[in-house]
Amino acid sequence: MLNKIKEVFNDLLKSKIEKIPKIYNSFSSTEKVFFYIFTIIFSFSFIFLYKNINEKFLVEIPIQGGSIVEGVIGSPRFINPILATSKADEDLSILIYSGLLKATPSGKLIPDLAESYEISEDRYVYTFKLKDDLKFHDGEKLTTKDIEFTINATQNNIIKSPKRANWDGVEIKRLNDKEIQFILPQPYSPFLENLSLGILPEHIWGEISPEQFVFSQFNIEPVGSGPYEIKKIKRNSSETLESYSLKSFNDYALGEPFVTELIIKLYANEEALINAFNNNSVQNINSINPNEIKNLELGSSDEILSTPLPRIFGVFFNQNENPVFTNEEVRIALNRAINRKQIINDVLYNYGVSIDSPIPSNSMFYIPNSDEADKGMDSAKEILKEHGWSLNDDGILEKITNKETSLLSFSISTANTPELKATAELLKLKWEELGAQVQLKIYEIGDLNQNVIRPRDYDSILFGKVIGRDMDLFAFWHSSQRNDPGLNISMYTNITVDNLLEEIRIINNVDEQKIKFEKLQEEIFNDVPAIFIYSPHFIYINSTKIKNNPLNQITIPSQRFLDINNWYIKTDKIWKLFL
Fold first, then answer.
1. How many Cα atoms are found within 13 Å in the side-chain-facing hemisphere of 395?
2. Residue 1: is its pLDDT beyond 50?
3. Is 185 exposed, middle or buried (0-12, 13-18, 19+ CB in 10 A)?
């Protein structure tokens, strides 16, 4: 019956179309002109209406496809979330592995492998439930056995994971294949941040002894459960790693990424990276020296993205090593004498922000040190004069008391990087203008860490501290952290600050934390154990063809990839009613 109706309809349509030439030929010349005019008007009206209807009802959506070629400095050694130390390690680890939770560019933590979690009322026990059908890149099932194994490996003394301190004293209790508990020795409000740690496959790493962990080939050829899996690894004739070709993982817990191919090309140094960009060998590069931006050959599809990093760069005083810093007026004067705006302009080329606090200026807990803001060189000289400092015959400030003569003389130790060297030189000029005798000591970064910072062998040190999203400052300012491996490089001791740091770690209420952080900053402002100078920007040269890749809140360069599963290049348009 249906076919019969179709045949009749087709016959009618055919007969109508066949009549059109006959009707047209019957038109007079004038009628033909009107017919053409009407046809043209009708066609334009139809196109106009169609376009407007499409614009009103069609929406653009991301679709699968496209590729990104990213240039990175360095060669990875540990593409392993519990061992990663270099930028290349961290970049590839964040792409290949996934954790129970994941941070977003806004700084919020969301479930990744986890379906849900609960925190006990006393905040000692965290219970996590996994999503269904989780898989590693090799197709093997991911369960709580893998999570338990990863945390145990992180805690293992032999493996010596840099993340070990995050898990000290934490007990792991696996309830079943989908549920697991973490039992803390005491409440710790930033603990959830630790749950973004990438998970290792136990079926691979379980067969490798702790002694052999760092030597495993799986540190170079990793298998994870993150948004991207390895497609191809390219080496040169001497077996040096040249690039990693990654493809989107269709079983990723948060959905397969839109960008289907990501190529990470590896370069020995910044010069090689910039040359690769200028030669169009790579599309995106990051973390270059601000001074090198002028050497980039930017095209119409290139843009410079930047965002402040929560890194506190400053001069930290070691009063135990050089007693001149025990004079409070000296520390205050040195702080007043520096020109932060000059450093931001001349050293960072305005890719940075000046700071005056141990807390990043973009944090909700930040409070400016308004009492010392922009007092300048004259004020610095005045406070020293008031406390008995005067220039000697050599033009160096000295202070004579009944006991001894103190000379305003000290050294600044720092790393052999362009930014830190240039900053140290500007500080030296300003402090010599004040009347100090200043010596610069420049070290390679490995030497600085091993032979200067660890034994606390410096008068003062120009250095940076990375402040995490959790805003846990315990390691930087608590008196128990004065010696290695603690990071209290000012050797700072203040019982009030100790108590505040301990309380902040336990408090889970933001308003209460704000009150504690305010008091903490006031104490440090009053004691002046360090001079806070700047926070640098993270610089990302990005192709505009890549959409939906905001930087926002990142603490380390690899976190530019936090939301990579939502980046896209290809788009399509569909009617809204189909969304």
1. 6
2. no
3. exposed
Phi and psi, residue 187, nearest 5°: -60, 140
Helix 510-527 × helix 495-506 angle, to 10°: 160
Strands (E), 154-195: 171-174, 179-183
Inter-residue long-range contacts of 45-54, CB under 8 Å, 24+ positions, other chains counted: 54/573
CB contact at 8 A, 347 and 564:
no
Report residue 451 CA to chain centroid gap: 28
Q: Note the pTM of the prediction, 2 decimals.
A: 0.85
What tokens were used for 568? 């896209």
Domain boundaries, the chain: 2-56, 67-284+546-572, 311-537
Query: What tokens does 567 get?
Result: 């980046």
Q: Are strands 285-286 and 302-308 parallel, antiparallel or unpaired?
A: unpaired
CA separation for the pair 95, 87 (Å, rounded)? 13
If we measure between CA atoms, which residue out of 294, 126, 279, 265 comes closest to residue 195?
126
- Per CATH, 67-284+546-572 and 311-537 having the same topology is answered no
Query: What is the C-alpha separation between 413 and 246, in angstroms, rounded?
Result: 41
pLDDT at residue 203, as a whole number = 97
Tokens 């592995």 — which residue?
97
3-class SS at 433?
Answer: helix
Which CATH architecture best describes the domain 311-537? Roll (3.10)
Report phi then psi at 533, rounded to 5: -120, -60
CATH assignment of 67-284+546-572? Answer: 3.40.190.10
Instruction: List, for residues 97-152, the tens digit of each pLDDT value.
Output: 999 999 998 889 999 999 999 999 999 999 999 999 999 999 999 999 999 999 99
Average pLDDT for the chain: 91
Cis bond upstream, residue 485 (ω within 30): yes
Task: List the beta strands (DSSP E) in 124-252.
Answer: 125-130, 171-174, 179-183, 228-235, 241-248
For the chain, how many residues are written? 579
* Tokens representing residue 62 in the block: 């991301």
Cα separation of 153 and 345, whole Å?
45
Give the β-pairing of 302-308 and 530-543.
antiparallel
Please answer whether residues 549 and 567 qualify as being in contact, where contact means their C-beta atoms are separated by less than 8 angstroms.
yes
Residue 546: strand, helix, or coil: coil
- The tens digit of pLDDT for each residue in 327-367 reads 999 999 999 999 999 999 999 999 999 999 999 988 899 98
| pLDDT of res. 8 | 44
What backbone phi and psi angles, to 5 degrees, belong to 103?
-85, 145
CB 181 within 8 A of CB 172: yes
